[in-house]
Amino acid sequence: MFNALLVEKDAEGKTHAAVRSIGMDRLPEGDVTVAVEFSTVNYKDGICVGPGGGLVRTYPHVPGIDFAGVVEASSDPRYAVGDKVICTGWRVGEARWGGYAQKARVKADWLVPLPAGLTTRQAMAVGTAGFTAMLAVMALEDHGLVPGAGQVLVTGAAGGVGSVATAILAHLGYEVAAVTGRPETADYLRGLGAAQIVARADLAETVKRPLEGEVWAGCIDAVGGAMLARVLGQMKYGASVAAVGLAGGATLPASVIPFLLRGVNLLGIDSVMRPYDDRVRAWDRIAQDLPMDKLEAMVQPATLSDLPRLGADILQGRVQGRVVVDVNA
Fold first, then answer.
1. Which of 3, 38, 212, 276 is most enclosed, with most CB atoms within 10 A?
2. Which PANTHER family does the record cross-reference, listed alphabetically (predicted)?
3. Using CA atoms, how far apart are residues 256 and 278, in angstroms rounded to an integer?
């Protein structure tokens, strides 16, 4: 038996999440069984835990799109009992049972080894949010961004992706301009390395002109919507925006003019189906380029019983930084 956050649907179609004791025989099929040590809270987790569970296919369901732990059993030669592993993406926690449990069973293809220098707790302080942030940084680098090129904008900077992106970029020597709608997070963002705080209201509205002055050498955007459209018109010639989220909406009310007249690049960042080699490279970069003291400054601890509340909070933009869930606490 093991404990898990189980989401069930009643006869009226309403979902209810609670910590339950579950038998090992209820775990899904898979090559590797993991004794989970830590998980985390992402925006998708809030959707899966909350009423309606829009991403969940079947009930009862164990959410949690990320987990890290120790291999307990394996039929795949790539992983042996005792190996420490990370799981993110592949619709784990959405279409399949996930990491809000003390045990998980998944396909070996969905795992990566824990990089040297990281603990399982630190890996979940990073989680999908931080992994996505690193992929965005790498994409901007691949498209020519170098330190000294100018300011790099991070929207939604106080959230999970934005916090990690800010810390990584600052560590690499970039001048980070952090966008937030919460003035009380300014000191937090400066502590992560932000050189400038930009009020959300300054970028929240679209303008009639498709091009404004050239301001940003790069951007990691977690907001989408009207803000992304506005930012595209402020990018320097040949600069790139890495799009990682849609907290501000999925519709993009933009013009093609920035692409045609300034050669601006809009880079889509997917972390769910990312190939194995990209995953390993990103996690190795995280271990190298994310200062652990900055990571620790983002973290708030949680247990399985805290997750219904935290799921609601993250959907309302009330979670700052990263949450680390100790599933055994």
1. 38
2. ACRYLYL-COA REDUCTASE ACUI-RELATED (PTHR43677:SF1), SHORT-CHAIN DEHYDROGENASE/REDUCTASE (PTHR43677)
3. 30
In the block, residue with structure tokens 């990584």: 168
Residue (of 128, 140, 37, 118) closest to 289 by Cα position: 118
Structure-block tokens of residue 28: 């899904």
> Which neighbouring-strand residues pair with 100?
none
Topology of 127-268 in CATH? Answer: Rossmann fold (3.40.50)
Q: Is the pLDDT of residue 183 over 80?
A: yes
What's the whole-number mean pLDDT along residues 38-65?
91
> How far is it, in rounded angstroms, from Cα 131 to Cα 53?
24
CA 163 to CA 161: how far, in whole Å? 6
pTM of the model: 0.95
* Bridging pattern class, strands 322-326 and 216-221: unpaired
What class is the 2-114+297-326 domain? alpha beta
Token digits for 317?
A: 């933009």
Residue 17, beta-bridge partner list: 7
Q: Do the strands 111-113 and 175-180 form a parallel or antiparallel pair, or are they unpaired?
A: unpaired
Q: What is the end-to-end Cα distance of the chain in Å, rounded?
A: 16
Residues 6+ apart with CB under 8 A from 260: none
Determine contact, residues 242/217, Cβ cutoff 8 Å: no
Are domains 2-114+297-326 and 127-268 of this chain identical in fold?
no
Task: Please state which of the ranges 48-52, 79-83, 195-199 shows the lowest mean pLDDT.
Answer: 48-52
Residue 20's φ and ψ, nearest 5 degrees, are -130, 160
Which CA distances in Å does 265 have to 8, 114, 319? 43, 33, 30
Report d(CA 176, CA 191) in Å as an integer. Answer: 12
Task: Tell how many helices (H) and how many strands (E) occur in the chain.
Answer: 9, 15
Q: Are 274 and 297 in contact (CB under 8 A)?
A: no
Q: Where along the chain do its domains lie?
A: 2-114+297-326, 127-268
- State whether the Cα torsion 20-24-27-30 is positive or negative: positive
